[in-house]
Amino acid sequence: MDNDCLFCRIVAGEIPATVVHETATTLAFRDIDPKAPVHVLVIPKAHHRDVLALAGDPAAAADLLAASAAVAQAEGLTGDGFRLIFNTGGHGGQEVFHVHAHVVGGRALGPMVSR
Ligand code: 5GP
Ligand code: ZN
């Protein structure tokens, strides 16, 4: 655990979150500032700063993907579709440096990025 990391502190139970799914290696909770009717963050419990670091731990990456799919299913998003987003680094707009997948859906989301 990284004591300076917001999401590690959520995993540790030090900061409250609305948890919607949990496995031995992953935690999923609602984004505090949702951008769509469904906006859930899915994280590995182990600290990896971004998706590049996570790629070095294939088992954790697979667990995160499976948990993201389970969340999409549980939130009723698999029929109409949804978006799975890993913001990475400066140009990617990453704000929290504990890797997280955004599961976003519940409405048509428009173009993938603006020009
Ligand atoms: P990023 O920009 O790093 O991809 O996304 C970080 C996300 O974390 C943002 O969507 C932001 O709303 C969310 N967030 C920031 N602080 C908290 C928090 O304390 N609790 C929850 N549940 N979400 C947070
Ligand atoms: Zn962390």
UniProtKB/TrEMBL annotation:
Where does this chain carry the motif Histidine triad motif?
Answer: 98-102
- Domain annotation HIT: ranges: 6-114
Which InterPro entries does this entry report, sorted A to Z?
Histidine_triad_HIT, HIT-like, HIT-like_sf
- The superkingdom listed in its UniProt entry is Bacteria
Q: Which GO terms describe its molecular function?
A: catalytic activity
Q: Which residues form the active site?
A: H100
Q: Return the PANTHER family for the record.
A: HISTIDINE TRIAD HIT PROTEIN
Protein's name according to its UniProt entry: Histidine triad nucleotide-binding protein
| Source organism | Actinoplanes nipponensis
